[in-house]
Design a protein that fits this description.
The structure holds 2 protein chains of 2 kinds. Chain A is of the alpha/beta class. Chain A is 34% helix and 19% strand. Classes of the chains: A alpha/beta, B alpha/beta. The interface between A and B is large, with 44 and 56 residues.
Amino acid sequence: MSKRAVPEINASSMADISFLLLIFFLVTTSMAVNKGLTRKLPPPIPKDQPVPEQVDVNKRNVFVVLINSQNQLMVQGKQMDIKELRTKTKEFIKNEFNDVNLPVLTQVTIKSIGTVNVTKDHVISLQNDRGTDYQAYLEVQNELVAAYNELRDELAKEKFGTYFNNLEEESQNAIQKVYPQKISEAEPKNYGGVK
Amino acid sequence: MAKIRKDEKKGVPAISTASLPDIIFMLLFFFMATTSMKEVTYMVRFSVPEATELTKLEKKTLVRYIYVGEPRMDLIKTHGTESRIQIDDEFVDVNNIDQTITLERESMNEADQPKLIVSIKADKETKMGIITDIKQELRDAYALKISYAAVSKVND
């Protein structure tokens, strides 16, 4: 019997089929990655306990940032533009020259960094009005986090010669100890205006 | 002079399309791998604010979302134009966020429960009042890790 050749399968429609699938996935895909400013909320206060007044925090250790309903910023009692906030925050956290108006410096010895002066008890208190825009609020949060990130990067550059994010976990922890992130999103209050 | 002409119609040879499916398949696989289907239908309209210091949320299984914004156009008639809160596929009242999130957490793997991250996807024009309420509710539900969803700012 003569050998019968198997007819070749026509593959030209393959491209069409895969095009169709490709277009389907192109349409349904959403490349948006989940990004955001991560924060940690304080644990709830038990209901029967009265709201604690801020007593134990020394006044010079607190950096008060207020945003009103017109999205204006007041920092340490003075009106401020958002562009200055980052530098001011950095000054506050670092207290390079041991200013009496800036937070108390404590000497701390940290493995792999050595002995440094740290404003360990500083608190940034962020307070907002109920009428503040979310965008404005987030911008302020962003500036505060940026201040910390810049300080951490500076220290990482100085001590380890690279950016904070490229460091091993151990060194990252050490740097975090020097610049602990302390942003307190205050208990909600009503500023000006009766509810 | 002898000119040998075999054929007048020499023409350009046809381009082989045999590799076309391969190329398309490659693209197809790329999109299949990177795609993530939308989990919920948005009932609120929102465009998240811009920021620069963003952290990526790595594990999707640990993240639950809260959407805040004005109701969708076709829902305005029934729900008004006030900012509303959506969790999963339904509107949730502010006071019920506590329970809803607790339920969500209980449906998670036990080992993952403490790692729950709540991502707040709110419109940039939302007033902080509603966000503050949500935050208080999340504190009551002991969902303390939160993330304010934002997009990276294009440098100006």
